[in-house]
TrEMBL record:
<dbReference type="GO" id="GO:0008757">
    <property type="term" value="F:S-adenosylmethionine-dependent methyltransferase activity"/>
</dbReference>
<dbReference type="InterPro" id="IPR013216">
    <property type="entry name" value="Methyltransf_11"/>
</dbReference>
<keyword id="KW-0489">Methyltransferase</keyword>
<dbReference type="Pfam" id="PF08241">
    <property type="entry name" value="Methyltransf_11"/>
</dbReference>
<protein>
    <submittedName>
        <fullName>Class I SAM-dependent methyltransferase</fullName>
    </submittedName>
</protein>
<dbReference type="InterPro" id="IPR029063">
    <property type="entry name" value="SAM-dependent_MTases_sf"/>
</dbReference>
<dbReference type="GO" id="GO:0032259">
    <property type="term" value="P:methylation"/>
</dbReference>
<feature type="domain" description="Methyltransferase type 11">
    <location>
        <begin position="55"/>
        <end position="146"/>
    </location>
</feature>
<keyword id="KW-0808">Transferase</keyword>
Length: 260
């Protein structure tokens, strides 16, 4: 079978054993873009979770899934490879595992979820198409996947600034590049694989999913005034993409698989 997604070989996850503490500290800051922009947009697209089963794949310390349990989710499960979890209230399950194959995470086999989240974690799947196909099979009938990724333009611009090249050269580059996140832990080197918008969209369709809604969240006017340095970041690098992904009919996916 041809590789349906040239961008599907994921970013390495190993650095997260070291990086997770720095990431959570940065995320908890009052002016973090996750607090100001990303989580409010993710939460809004998720809608009412009362009585629903929710799985957060790449959940970090588990704070978001704990909030969803507080807001009425009937089952609240987080999976993360780092195992750097908060103490959680009864009813919330946090599992150490790899989001590349959620069905293989101990405790998840055979379970179904109304909402499956990949919030800034999907890029670490060893094979993005496979990870999403597995997640799709774990959805209930009316279920959907909420997935966020950094705008690929951001990495392309940063690389162009670093290498003295152009946006297009870096956007369409295919070689992995190393990356240090200044706000998390500069000692930790992440390896990233470039991806384009078409890589992302083709990954979704190869996994039998379609983007029902896509959002590119920005700061409110009030928050932009309070945190002009964050508005400057978004002005330069755009921010993240938030996708609400619905399963295409199974027949559609089977037909596609037969073609390969
Ligand atoms: C950028 S953080 C996002 C955390 C959280 N979803 C949020 O929105 O705040 C990426 C998370 O993915 C986790 N991660 C990386 N590779 C993973 C893998 N293969 N399986 C499960 N989790 C992984 C990291 O440990 C980290 O917690």
């Amino acid at each position: 079978m041809d590789d349906p997604d040239p961008g599907s070989r994921g970013d390495a996850s190993a650095p997260w054993q070291t990086l997770s503490a720095g990431f959570e500290q940065a995320r908890a800051r009052e002016d973090s873009l996750d607090r100001l922009v990303e989580w409010p947009a993710q939460r809004a697209l998720l809608g009412d979770v009362t009585g629903l089963a929710v799985l957060d794949a790449g959940c970090g310390n588990g704070a978001k899934i704990v909030q969803l349990a507080d807001e009425g989710a009937a089952a609240a499960v987080g999976v993360d490879i780092s195992g750097n979890f908060l103490d959680v209230p009864a009813g919330v399950e946090l599992l150490v595992g790899d989001l590349s194959d959620l069905a293989a995470v101990p405790g998840l086999a055979g379970r179904r979820f109304d909402r499956i989240l990949f919030l800034q974690s999907f890029g670490y799947a060893a094979d993005g198409v496979r990870a999403l196909r597995t997640a799709r099979q774990m959805l209930t009938e009316d279920g959907f996947i909420l997935l966020t990724r950094t705008q690929p333009v951001r990495y392309a611009l940063e690389q162009a600034e670093r290498n003295g090249t152009s946006l297009g050269e870096e956007y369409f580059a295919t070689e992995p590049f190393t990356y240090r996140h200044r706000g998390w832990d500069e000692q930790v080197v992440l390896t990233k694989r470039p991806y384009t918008m078409s890589d992302l969209l083709n990954t979704f369709s190869a996994a039998g999913l379609w983007p029902e809604t896509t959002v590119e969240p920005q700061l409110s006017a009030e928050a932009a005034e309070r945190h002009p340095h964050k508005q400057a970041v978004l002005n330069a690098y755009l921010g993240i993409l938030v996708f609400k992904l619905r399963p295409l009919p199974t027949a559609w996916l089977e037909e596609r698989l037969d073609q390969h």
